[in-house]
């Protein structure tokens, strides 16, 4: 893709997402994520009304009098996007390719984070870590993330979510908001993702195309898996074929949702042919309600 084309696409995405950021997400994002982080402020003598849970027992032992640790809300958060760049995201039967929707969703969340004075960073992955941009503040950071996603030419076509998750777990020490944006066509990532969620606030955004879950009655179809290279021919006009496909998909969906339930990570599914803004807003509002109940 030529540089001029990249600039045009970035500008178009920025314009498209601006109203969503201003009108839809800024309020919900601010309410949901502001003040999640805590940073050490000082150690001081215990005073009446202080919680005993804040007592620093090492300092107390040295001075012979109770001391507590004080923490303050951080003014900014690290927001990281783990973006799937594997070959399966290049599929799209209707309005968008999955990769195009991933780019736009990353854009609107990046600009929402920046409106909240947060830092944004990116990790692009396939079955290896392909690109990492540390969290930084400012509009230029969000634009660089968009540019790198649009410029992205992967070394591999396959997917390994576990490798990406383990990389970011080792690298990121500060409590962060981590959006994993993928179609989650992978296995054996549960243990590493569950470990990451204990340390950070992890949100899984699953990007799908309707044709992946609903086999159309379109006669003989020649299917190709871009990640494995396997080819398959099916007669989609056959009702029994479509029913077996639907049963297999239902089983996969149930198993995936159960995996995320056990990991205690929210899974939000977004489709290429449906507006994503209402679903994201509904998710934000749900999280805000849950946060207020704690």
Which keywords apply here?
9 helices; alpha/beta; 294 residues; Rossmann fold; 2 domains
Write up this protein.
The protein has a six-stranded mixed β-sheet, sandwiched between helices. A two-stranded antiparallel sheet has the order 1-2. A two-stranded antiparallel sheet has the order 8-9. The model has no long low-confidence stretch (mean pLDDT 85). The protein is an alpha/beta fold and 294 residues long. It is globular. The relative contact order is 0.14. Strand 6 (176-182), helix 6 (190-199) and strand 7 form a beta-alpha-beta unit. The protein has two domains: 3-34 and 75-293, Rossmann fold (3-Layer(aba) Sandwich); 38-73, no CATH class. The protein contains nine helices and ten strands. Helix 1 (3-33) crosses helix 4, helix 1 runs parallel beside helix 9 and helix 5 runs parallel beside helix 6. The longest helix has 31 residues, at 3-33.
Short description:
By secondary structure, the chain is of the alpha/beta class. The chain contains 9 helices and 10 strands.
Radius of gyration: 22 Å
What fold name stands as the CATH topology of the largest domain? Rossmann fold
Biggest sheet layout: 6 strands, mixed
- Our estimate of the beta-strand percent is 15-25%
Structural class: alpha/beta
Spatial sequence of strands, sheet with the most strands: 5-4-3-6-7-10
The tally of beta strands, per DSSP, is 10
How many H/I helical runs? 9
Q: What is the oligomeric state here?
A: single chain
CATH class of the largest domain: Alpha Beta
Q: What is the assigned CATH homologous superfamily of the largest domain? A: von Willebrand factor, type A domain
Element order, helices and strands? HEHEEHEEHHEHEHEEHEH
Low-confidence stretches: none
Distance between the termini: 48 Å
Helix content: 40-55%
Shape: globular
């Amino acid at each position: 893709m030529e540089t001029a084309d990249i600039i045009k696409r970035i500008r178009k995405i920025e314009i498209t997402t601006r109203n969503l950021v201003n009108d839809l997400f800024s309020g919900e994002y601010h309410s949901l994520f502001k003040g999640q982080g805590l940073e050490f402020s000082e150690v001081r003598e215990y005073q009446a009304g202080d919680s005993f849970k804040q007592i620093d027992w090492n300092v107390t032992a040295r001075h012979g009098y109770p001391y507590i640790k004080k923490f303050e809300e951080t003014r900014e958060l690290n927001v990281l996007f783990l973006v799937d760049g594997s070959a399966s995201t290049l599929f799209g039967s209707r309005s968008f390719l999955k990769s195009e929707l991933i780019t736009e969703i990353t854009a609107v969340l990046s600009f929402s984070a920046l409106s909240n004075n947060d830092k944004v960073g990116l990790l692009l992955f396939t079955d290896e870590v392909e690109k990492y941009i540390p969290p930084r503040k400012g509009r230029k950071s969000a634009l660089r993330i968009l540019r790198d996603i649009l410029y992205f030419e992967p070394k591999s076509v396959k997917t390994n979510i576990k490798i990406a998750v383990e990389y970011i777990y080792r690298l990121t020490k500060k409590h962060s908001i981590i959006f994993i944006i993928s179609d989650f066509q992978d296995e054996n990532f549960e243990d590493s993702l569950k470990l990451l969620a204990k340390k950070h606030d992890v949100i899984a955004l699953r990007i799908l195309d309707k044709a992946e879950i609903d086999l159309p009655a379109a006669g003989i179809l020649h299917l190709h898996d871009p990640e494995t290279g396997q080819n398959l021919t099916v007669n989609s006009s056959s009702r029994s074929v479509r029913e077996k496909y639907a049963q297999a998909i239902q089983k996969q969906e149930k198993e995936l949702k159960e995996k995320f339930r056990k990991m205690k990570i929210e899974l939000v599914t977004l489709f290429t042919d449906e507006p994503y803004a209402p679903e994201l807003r509904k998710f934000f509002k749900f999280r805000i309600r849950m946060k207020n109940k704690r």
